[in-house]
Design a protein that fits this description.
alpha+beta
């Protein structure tokens, strides 16, 4: 049983990509058919103890807008999706 989904994103975006990151996590849980531990008939979208940390490196080149409709948002979503999937599979014993 998975207890928590923590995500850390390091970026040069001045606008936090919160929606992109959370949507990517939820899509991954849906793709893996992760079920709610309280109501197994429902798919899980996360837990009450999930954490999201977004750190900006303060780089000279700033990204002013992040969404799933721009390349940086697409790249972030793919990275979060792959990392979340790998973590869930590893935690569940490679299944």
């Amino acid at each position: 049983m998975w207890e928590r989904y923590d995500t850390i994103v390091i970026t040069n975006a001045s606008y936090p990509p919160t929606v992109v990151v959370v949507e990517a996590k939820v899509i991954t849980l849906q793709d893996l058919d992760i079920r709610s531990s309280y109501t197994p008939d429902l798919q899980a979208t996360g837990t009450e103890t999930d954490n999201l940390v977004i750190a900006s490196l303060g780089m000279e080149l700033k990204v002013n807008y992040v969404s799933g409709h721009v390349k940086i948002g697409e790249m972030m979503a793919k990275a979060v999706t792959l990392a979340t999937k790998d973590a869930v599979i590893e935690r569940c014993g490679g299944k």
